[in-house]
Specification:
Layout lengths: L1 H20 L21 H11 L4 E7 H4 L5 H4 L6 E7 L5 E7 L8 H13 L4 E4 L5 H7 L3 E8 L11 E7 L5 E3 L1
Helix pairs in contact: 2-6
């Protein structure tokens, strides 16, 4: 009879130990980890459009706010700790030009949260650009201060040689410096 009681006690101890082994640190059962896409189906065309419209820039996707802002104290850092920007556009020196957010249908009813996010980005000294849908190339260039001034045809000045013709696009940025492509 005592052997039966000892076996029952050992059985219950084994069940308790095995049951606790399946739980995580906080006592909850651990769920399986699954992979997911970096960009949603709505974000993918916007990423490609930004890269196409801004070839002189670096476009990063899904960047943690903590990568481009910081603060003293946990209570302040917790305001942006788990937030992620859709896109961060950098110049060739890796300076942030703008934070770009795509406000697709998943943002409906969340305008207050978006305004809070914008406030954090602005407080950190960065520019925010929001699009309701994938913008066209001209809109992106306009928003980033890239303006196509003129199209010029350049011809060879020596009449006895074959005439060379090329088109040059002159872009003007906000700082009024001109670039010829």
């Amino acid at each position: 009879m005592t052997w039966i009681i000892i076996l029952i006690v050992i059985f219950f101890i084994a069940v308790l130990v095995l049951g606790n082994a399946k739980k995580g640190k906080n006592g909850a059962a651990r769920n399986p980890i699954k992979g997911k896409r970096i960009l949603t189906m709505n974000e993918q065309p916007t990423f490609l459009r930004l890269r196409e419209a801004l070839p002189e820039h670096i476009v990063l996707a899904q960047v943690s706010f903590s990568a481009f802002m910081t603060a003293q104290g946990y209570s302040t850092r917790n305001l942006f700790n788990r937030k992620v920007a859709d896109f961060v556009v950098l110049d060739k020196q890796f300076n942030i030009v703008a934070i770009v957010e795509l406000d697709d249908s998943s943002h409906k009813g969340k305008e207050d949260k978006d305004a809070d996010r914008d406030g954090l980005i602005i407080e950190a000294g960065h520019r925010i650009i929001r699009y309701q849908r994938t913008p066209d190339i001209d809109q992106v260039k306009k928003d980033f201060g890239i303006i196509c001034i003129e199209t010029t045809t350049i011809e060879s000045e020596t009449p006895d040689k074959t005439s060379l013709v090329s088109e040059a696009f002159i872009f003007e940025t906000e700082s009024n410096e001109q670039k010829t492509l």
